[in-house]
Design a protein that fits this description.
Helix content is 53%, strand content 5%. By secondary structure, the chain is mainly α. The chain has a single domain, classed as Multidrug-efflux Transporter Regulator, Chain: A, Domain 2. The chain starts with 8 loop residues before the first helix and ends in a 5-residue tail after the last helix. The model has no long low-confidence stretch (mean pLDDT 90).
Length: 81
């Protein structure tokens, strides 16, 4: 397995085609979490698990799942698809 990579919000935005605003909204809803902050700048950073969670959210949204249902799925590790 590949060593974990770390990303800033702008990196996640680039990799997923989600806006920075949308990613921040998902953080606010608790769908994803930061894994830490940079000491010098206090920027939030994320890892591969966050990227995978965003990809799962995108796929579930494509299948018309609500954000409430997605939150439930992510918390319970259901496999709806």
């Amino acid at each position: 397995m590949k060593a974990s990579e770390f990303y800033l919000i702008k990196d996640l935005s680039f990799l997923t085609d989600l806006s920075v605003y949308t990613i921040r909204y998902y953080i606010k809803l608790g769908l994803i979490k930061e894994v830490g902050r940079t000491p010098a700048t206090n920027f939030k950073y994320f890892d591969n698990s966050t990227l995978e969670a965003l990809k799962k959210i995108i796929k579930l949204k494509e299948h018309n799942f609500s954000l409430d249902k997605i939150a439930h799925i992510l918390k319970s590790n259901e496999r709806p698809l």
